[in-house]
Design a protein that fits this description.
This protein is an alpha/beta fold and 460 residues long. Helix content is 45%, strand content 14%. Strands 2, 5, 6, 7, 9, 10, 11 and 12 form an eight-stranded mixed β-sheet that branches. A two-stranded antiparallel ribbon has the order 1-8. A two-stranded antiparallel sheet has the order 3-4. Strand 3 and strand 4 form a beta hairpin. Helix 2 packs across helix 3. About 1% of the residues have low confidence.
Length: 460
């Protein structure tokens, strides 16, 4: 037995020496090209320009993934009339922004389309991902040495698992090659708390080529919950590809008043511009910066000054309906400590802190969206009707409506059932029954949403 162990250890050390005990290194970008890579400016599926629909999938482990999956199922079943043609509402989705657990169904649909409805349950939702990662960590001697190297940790192991067992070793080049919604996977810079998205637009800033980066590694970074998983490390090559980040920021902000929020977002980029001071970027769970995935869109609009500044001169300038569908799998505060007189544990305090911070930031983010959209919609109508009568008749210049649809457990009327869903574990292991219950409640919450029904009525 000892002889076998020595042989295995020798093999593991050989693998380590060969460089296997190292995180996946993101490749440098040789030369900046605004038309190259996976970016929003030229990635839009074949769909009507009169309807723009965006989905935001929150974090929350398999609980969030199953809830988001249920929404995708319902959208695939829902037929609407767009431009006189009968279409699935799912086919009108132009972008999906995912965080942590929500990044997995988003990325899978972006890569494989409707295949998600045939095999995603078996490959992810109803699989004991947590158990598989535990076995890979503790039962595989090769990984003992890799994990002890200092350059390879639990999230890197998870990235390899997702790459091989979920996403079939696909990269962002594969996402670029299909005509499906733009998929934005969100993570957080550990040092500055800046939200980082896996699009070439952000990778231009650090002069890195996103095309060769594995989708599995991006999802591992997005779900690297501090204390449970390690950070995912990337290299910063800023200043080596000819990209003028500050110049691009000035160009995007030109011609409109800079709000405090816009200036703050612009300042967030600065730490990444000096690769000598910040040669490495350590990424943790996207929920640290934004657990809804909504800021990926909202920040872009704020940077441009308004919705009109963003769509003016594009195919969407004449759109009539803008839809935000937000899937929020947030948890419930643990109130049991309110009935006990002894001091809560450190773990309980950390859990409470996380829940409070996420919930309050979610409320603020959605409130900001609602406030901004109202004024932005007025501006769109005003600018499109400039010099003429502002008519809101169908197809006229003033015909513009926006919809904010929320799918969240708070809308479950039965208190016992609501508590059941909110208290499902934030992990990558649920029972098949729990997964099916989440899919079912997602479909019910979506179809019972008054805002969703208003959209369906308006599309008839």
């Amino acid at each position: 037995m000892k002889r076998i162990f020595r042989i295995v250890l020798a093999v593991a050390m050989s693998l380590s020496a060969a460089g296997c005990a190292h995180y996946h290194v993101n490749e440098p970008l040789k030369e900046y090209n605004p038309g190259y890579g996976y970016r929003s400016i030229h990635h839009r599926p074949e769909q009507t320009n009169h309807l723009s629909m965006m989905l935001c999938f929150s974090g929350g482990g398999t609980r969030a993934a199953a809830l988001s999956y249920g929404v995708l199922e319902e959208l695939a079943r829902t037929e609407v009339i767009v431009d006189g043609k009968t279409k699935r509402l799912l086919d009108e989705v132009g972008m999906i922004s995912g965080v942590s657990g929500g990044s997995f169904p988003a990325a899978y649909y972006g890569l494989f389309g409707d295949r998600i409805f045939r095999d995603f349950e078996g490959k992810f939702l109803k699989k004991d991902i947590q158990g598989d990662l535990f076995k890979a960590t503790f039962y595989n001697p090769v990984n003992w040495v890799r994990l002890a190297s200092g350059y390879f940790d639990r999230s890197d192991l998870a990235a390899e698992y997702y790459d091989e067992n979920v996403f079939e070793k696909k990269t962002f080049a594969d996402l670029s090659s299909v005509s499906r919604p733009l998929i934005i996977i969100n993570a957080t810079d550990m040092t500055y708390g800046v939200r980082m998205q896996f699009t070439q637009d952000f990778f231009d800033v650090i002069c890195s080529d996103l095309a060769t980066f594995p989708v599995g590694s991006a999802c591992a970074a997005s779900s690297a919950v501090p204390g449970v998983f390690s950070a995912i490390t990337m290299r910063n090559y800023a200043g080596t590809c000819g990209y003028d980040a500050l110049g691009e920021l000035r160009k995007r902000m030109k011609g409109h008043d800079h709000s405090d929020r816009a200036s703050f977002i612009a300042r967030n980029v600065r730490p990444f511009l000096d690769s000598r001071k910040k040669p490495y970027i350590h990424l943790v769970d996207g929920g640290v910066a934004d657990n809804l995935g909504l800021r990926a869109v909202l920040d872009k609009l704020i940077m441009r000054g308004s919705l009109w500044n963003t769509i003016r001169g594009t195919k969407l300038e004449g759109m009539h309906k803008l839809v935000f569908l937000i899937v929020n799998a947030e948890t419930e505060a643990d109130t049991t400590w309110d009935t006990q007189d002894f001091i809560p544990s450190v773990a309980a305090m950390l859990s409470s802190y996380s829940t409070i911070a996420i919930e309050r930031y979610n409320v603020e983010t959605i409130s900001l969206l609602k406030e901004q959209l109202k004024s932005w919609a007025d501006e769109v109508r005003r600018e499109r009707c400039r010099g003429g009568e502002m008519s809101t008749d169908p197809g006229a210049c003033g015909d513009f409506s926006h919809y904010i649809i929320e799918v969240k457990f708070d809308e479950v009327t039965d208190e016992r059932k609501r508590s059941y869903f909110k208290r499902l574990p934030t992990s990558f292991r649920l029972t098949p029954e729990e997964v099916d219950n989440l899919r079912s409640v997602a479909q019910r919450l979506l179809t019972e949403s008054a805002e969703y029904q208003r959209l369906l009525k308006d599309l008839k």
